[in-house]
């Protein structure tokens, strides 16, 4: 991608008046001092535990702009209050606001973001940015974060614009909203999937988590797609937390409606069987162009698994409708969508059993995958899960409680223990169990999987939860290569 050139004053004008003597042309921008050279502007912001200037060792730079206070900034460095909050806007200006010439869909919520943005990338032929990776699906880059830093976001958008990509679907994490990573992104559609307990090691409590998520909808988006089956989704509308200029499309798989919604996308006659999911797609448009209520219905069949994928497909349909896709085209589009790596990913076993690899790593997500898979499983449902180390301790017993309640047999194992003792993590989880019948502890993780697979009979399934698409296990501070899918397939091919 060609690098633009901008004057320093144009980049900083809204935030920092610049002495004419300090004017210069900028050939690149970075937040990483390891990427500095004489043509590059270094934006040195304050982080959670450290300041970027802590890592400065005299590298050459076109200019250094830093976030005050800092005890001894480099000579000539320019102080810019709240620089961290402005990084996205500065980067957007540097790259000529790529999102303004694209359709950018931002999905936030606890669960469903990865599947939704993957489905939208499939449906539109555009790019995605999220946990699964960054870019068009045929050329995905590995993801470093669910939502990367603001400079990388704008750099990706600019590169995709240059390649002629028109639509981008992006996961917007709570961390990204709290840290202003998506500032400078002009979203066309914001989607709220749901909200449940997660990231409480970062947020003060569930209310703080919700308020951060709500920030996406405080801006005047052209469209907001809101799951009104979720209590927090309804609250966004009840408390007028969606900007008044935004056209609201409500989504429900439970027959709900909301008076603030201009349109509703819903599902009726939902059925799940061994082949997948089936439902009637319903669309009511009440207020567009001041026309009378219009209503459309069509059957949808999908080879995807799990009840929650009905909601993911409804969110996909709502976004496509907002983008003026004819309703009559949507059932066929939904039918072609294939599964997302590590999201209810089925690996068939020769005896008619199945292993289901899923990213579920919260209590609500574990309930959803187990409830969602149950109608597809005529036999016994097993669950293998673990809890991350150095993360929210409070969700550990809740996850065990969910597994014990919704699975026939539960196996608790490791999942990124990090610097904690794995036995202590498992002990925390076991506090959520009752009589502990049909609950086993097996570790390490690959041994747990190898122990379960030969016990499965025809019609049985095991949900292997927590890692999904991830290909590593974090032990201590080191990432070791590990994959649930590889473990299952290696077992299948072993003598």
What does this structure look like?
- The protein is α/β, with parallel strands linked by helices and 495 residues long.
- The protein has 3 domains: 6-94, Udp-n-acetylmuramoylalanyl-d-glutamate--2,6- Diaminopimelate Ligase, Chain: A, domain 1; 97-336, Mur-like, catalytic domain (UDP-N-acetylmuramoyl-L-alanine:D-glutamate ligase); 345-493, Alpha-Beta Complex (Protein-Tyrosine Phosphatase, Chain A), CATH 3.90.190.20.
- Helix content is 28%, strand content 23%.
- Strands 9-8-10-7-11-12-13-14-15-16 form a 10-stranded mixed beta sheet, with helices on both faces. Strands 17-18-22-19-20-21 form a 6-stranded mixed beta sheet, sandwiched between helices. A 4-stranded parallel beta sheet has the order 3-4-5-6, with helices on one face.
- Strand 19 (381-385), helix 11 (395-406) and strand 20 form a beta-alpha-beta unit.
- The longest helix is centred in the middle third of the chain and has 15 residues, at 308-322.
């Amino acid at each position: 991608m060609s690098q633009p050139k901008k004057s320093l004053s144009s980049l900083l004008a809204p935030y920092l008046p610049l002495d004419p003597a300090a004017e210069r042309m900028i050939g690149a921008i970075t937040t990483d001092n390891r990427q500095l050279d004489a043509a590059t502007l270094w934006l040195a912001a304050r982080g959670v535990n450290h300041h970027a200037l802590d890592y400065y060792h005299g590298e050459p730079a076109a200019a250094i702009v830093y976030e005050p206070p800092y005890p001894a900034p480099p000579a000539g460095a320019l102080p810019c209050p709240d620089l961290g909050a402005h990084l996205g806007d500065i980067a957007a200006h540097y790259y000529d606001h790529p999102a303004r010439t694209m359709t950018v869909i931002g999905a936030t919520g606890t669960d469903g973001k990865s599947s939704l943005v993957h489905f939208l990338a499939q449906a539109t032929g555009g790019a995605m940015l999220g946990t699964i990776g960054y870019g068009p699906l045929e050329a995905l880059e590995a993801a470093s974060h669910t939502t990367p830093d603001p400079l990388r976001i704008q750099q990706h958008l600019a590169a995709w614009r240059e390649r002629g990509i028109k639509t981008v679907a992006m996961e917007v994490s709570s961390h990204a909203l709290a840290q202003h990573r998506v500032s400078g992104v002009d979203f066309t559609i914001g989607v709220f999937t749901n909200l449940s307990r997660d990231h409480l090691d970062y947020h003060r409590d569930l209310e703080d988590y919700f308020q951060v998520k709500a920030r996406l909808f405080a801006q005047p988006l052209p469209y907001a797609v809101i799951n009104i089956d979720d209590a927090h989704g309804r609250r966004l509308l009840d408390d007028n937390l969606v900007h008044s200029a935004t056209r609201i499309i409500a989504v429900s798989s439970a027959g709900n409606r909301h008076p603030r919604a201009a349109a509703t996308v819903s599902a009726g006659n939902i059925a799940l069987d061994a082949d997948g999911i089936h439902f009637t797609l319903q669309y009511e448009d009440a207020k567009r162009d001041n026309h009378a209520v219009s209503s459309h219905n069509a059957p949808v069949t999908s080879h995807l698994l799990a009840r929650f994928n009905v909601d993911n497909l409804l969110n996909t349909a709502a976004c496509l409708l907002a983008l003026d896709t004819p309703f009559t085209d949507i059932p066929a589009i939904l039918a072609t969508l294939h599964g997302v790596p590590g999201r209810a990913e089925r690996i068939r076993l020769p005896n008619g059993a199945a292993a289901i690899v899923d990213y579920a790593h919260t209590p609500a997500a574990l309930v959803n995958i187990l409830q969602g898979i149950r109608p597809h499983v005529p036999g016994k449902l097993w669950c293998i899960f673990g809890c991350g180390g150095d993360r929210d301790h409070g969700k550990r017993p809740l996850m065990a409680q969910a597994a014990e309640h919704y699975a026939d047999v539960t196996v608790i194992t490791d999942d990124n223990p990090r610097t904690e003792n794995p036995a202590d993590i498992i002990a925390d989880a076991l506090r959520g169990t009752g009589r502990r019948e049909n609950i086993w502890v097996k570790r390490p993780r690959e041994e747990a999987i190898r122990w379960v697979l030969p016990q499965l009979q025809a019609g049985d399934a095991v949900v292997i939860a927590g890692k999904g698409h991830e290909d590593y296990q974090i032990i201590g501070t080191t990432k070791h290569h590990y994959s649930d899918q590889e473990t299952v397939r290696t077992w299948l091919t072993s003598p």
